[in-house]
Design goal:
heterodimer, A: mainly alpha, 12 helices, B: mainly alpha, MetI-like fold
């Protein structure tokens, strides 16, 4: 693999090569990540939530939508941790099943937006000129109109299926990643190791894939966590407003939408738990992002 | 400076033009304003007539061109939902949203600056750690959940707990019936929606102010000021805070522009007839003129506040030159 130092024989003044190239392997990375207690706790909590939600078929105490009309509506108890809803369903199980969709959309958007954003950003930053201009104009356009409005129009127009929601949210989220990657590519492409790689005959594609992208892995991964957090919150907000997930499918956003009328009624506990899960997931994802940032970038604490 | 502003505005125009067209096209494709007529007797004829009177039978570009020409001449069209003129409708809604935004931003700014200065001066103290934790919580909080929880715990719960006739804070509209003006009733309505808007703003801004303040506190001139024997209070508020406000100023201006998106869900929860409600209702009714006008007004605010951010940072920090 072509490391920056491979080019050092080419010029004597190549001493300021970026030595802190991302090297995710090795103990240093895990040690630096573990120094963040919140990041470790965040990773554990998120893992537990994900296992509980995606494994709900095995782990949930009751089946999806399983009604038991003999059960009176009641708040959290030992048998029903999150209480029972007005249809006699165990709310803990309902929340776990709803989490599948929330998490699926969040993670899918995170991955898709990061891949598209990184590819677009590195191409724009590396080639500059026309490609760069187009990218910046498009992102400018979306920076000035409120995202939630664009998403609402798009989802109503294209339908509110899961895949559509993922695609539409990604269509908005990739631009942030692209901007960050572009900035990094702009500065990296002037570095000696890139010039050296070009001089030794590497194609543009190889330079971008083997030299530029690995060197900005840290920024890309951190922005991926931001994209996941954005997507989870955006899906919930849109579902809450009626533009996202549609019944009978449920996500934490739709549960909150259904529970929004319970303020001031005895069943207000239905409002607590889906929101708490959203809050926890976003909090954990943000903590993981902080930990990753420091793990990838040991020299610099804040950014 | 003037030429800079001029160039920035000229640069924004094509973006506005493309943006408004995309919105126009999107609304026309996704929503049918004649949906509500489907159930009427003789539906086909009624719908055809309505489509003709709305201009829906013309090509999209012609419709857009007609709208644009009118818009630039100050004729923003007529709402197909309410048959009201669009311009006064938008302005009326803007008034409500302005109240929310103005109060939220003012309170958020003051609180953020105080928290930021405190956490920077007492870096790594228990108070700093607690405020940091709160900031993380504020950033991760879904704003609509925060609002609903605030309704439950700050309005309903105290009322039930102490058997009050009225909740201490209301969560419906900005005035009680037969009330208007700025009085206690107004603030009891305003408190909860403003709270829900302020929390995420403070979470972000206080971190920013803390970072900026820490940056400045490490500077040589602060050491000089202390060495001269100036009282610490004076060093912090006169020498340090002044310079730490510059990066804050530009970021807050940018964020204010984007608040228009944030008020959509808050206005929906609190039934405040502002821009957010106008947008949702118009969108669902396929009311294209109102939606596009909404888009343009929101975009103009974002552009204006971005410009303001640049001017502000140049004014606060003379080292920054606008070119």
């Amino acid at each position: 693999m072509a490391r920056p130092s491979d080019s050092s024989h080419l010029s004597a003044d190549a001493v300021d090569l970026p030595t802190a190239a991302a090297r995710p392997a090795g103990n240093g990375f895990i040690r630096r990540y573990s120094r963040h207690k919140s990041a470790v706790v965040g990773a554990v909590v998120l893992a537990v939530i994900m296992i509980a939600c995606f494994g709900a078929s095995w782990l949930a105490p009751y089946g999806k939508n399983q009604q038991n009309l003999d059960l009176a509506v009641h708040g959290p108890s030992l048998d029903h941790w999150f209480g029972v809803d007005e249809l006699g369903r165990d709310y803990f199980s309902e929340v776990l099943y709803a989490g599948q969709l929330s998490l699926k959309i969040g993670l899918a958007v995170g991955i898709l937006a990061t891949m598209v954003g990184a590819a677009a950003g590195v191409i724009a930053g590396y080639f500059g000129r026309a490609v760069d201009d187009v990218l910046m104009r498009v992102t400018d356009l979306f920076l000035i109109v409120p995202g939630i409005a664009v998403l609402a129009i798009a989802l109503r127009g294209l339908g509110q299926r899961d895949t559509t929601i993922i695609l539409v949210l990604s269509a908005l989220a990739w631009m942030r990643v692209a901007r960050v990657v572009r900035t990094q590519a702009l500065s990296l492409r002037e570095k000696d190791f890139v010039v050296a790689a070009r001089a030794s005959g590497a194609s543009h594609r190889r330079v971008m894939a083997r030299h530029l992208l690995p060197n900005m892995l840290g920024a890309i991964v951190v922005n991926a966590t931001l994209a996941v957090a954005f997507a989870v919150l955006a899906e919930a907000t849109l579902s809450f407003l009626g533009f996202g997930v549609e019944t009978p499918r449920t996500s934490w956003g739709t549960l909150l939408e259904k529970a929004s009328g319970t303020v001031g009624t005895p069943t207000v506990y239905l409002l607590y738990f889906p929101g708490l899960m959203l809050f926890l997931v976003v909090l954990c994802v943000n903590f993981i992002g902080e930990g990753l940032r420091d793990a990838f970038d040991p020299g610099d604490g804040e950014r | 400076m003037l030429s800079y502003i001029g160039r920035r505005l000229a640069y924004s125009l094509p973006v506005l033009l493309v943006g408004s067209f995309v919105a126009f096209w999107g609304v026309r494709v996704a929503f049918d304003p004649t949906d509500s007529l489907r159930g009427s007797p003789d539906a086909a004829r009624v719908i055809a007539e309505r489509r003709h009177s709305l201009g829906l039978d013309q090509p999209l570009l012609t419709q857009y061109w007609k709208w644009l020409k009118g818009f630039l001449h100050g004729d923003w069209g007529t709402s197909s939902r309410t048959n009201d003129r669009v311009y006064p409708t938008v302005m009326r809604s803007l008034g409500y949203t302005f109240q929310l935004v103005l109060w939220s931003v003012t309170i958020a700014l003051v609180v953020s600056i105080l928290i930021g200065v405190f956490s920077a001066v007492r870096e790594r103290s228990a108070g700093d750690h607690a405020l940091t934790a709160l900031a993380y919580a504020g950033i991760a909080m879904p704003i609509f959940w925060l609002a609903l929880m605030a309704n439950q715990f700050l309005a309903v719960w105290p009322q039930q707990r102490w058997n009050l006739d009225q909740p201490p804070l209301y969560f419906n509209g900005l005035h009680s019936q037969d009330h208007s003006g700025i009085n206690l009733d107004y603030f009891r309505h305003l408190a909860l929606p403003v709270f829900a808007l302020v929390v995420p703003l403070v979470a972000v801004w206080s971190r920013l102010q803390r970072a900026a303040m820490l940056d400045v506190l490490g500077a040589d001139y602060i050491r000089t000021a202390r060495a001269k024997g100036l009282p610490e209070r004076r060093v912090i508020f006169k020498h340090a805070l002044r310079n730490a406000l510059a990066p804050m100023g530009s970021q807050t201006a940018v964020d204010i522009g984007t608040l228009f998106g944030g008020v959509i869900v808050i206005e929906a929860i609190y039934q405040i007839p502002g821009m957010g409600q106008l947008f949702l209702n118009s969108l669902l009714a396929g009311d294209v003129y109102v939606v596009v006008a909404w888009m343009v007004v929101s975009a103009v605010f974002v552009i204006a506040f971005n410009l303001l951010a640049d001017i502000l940072s140049a004014w606060l920090d003379p080292r920054i030159r606008l070119t």
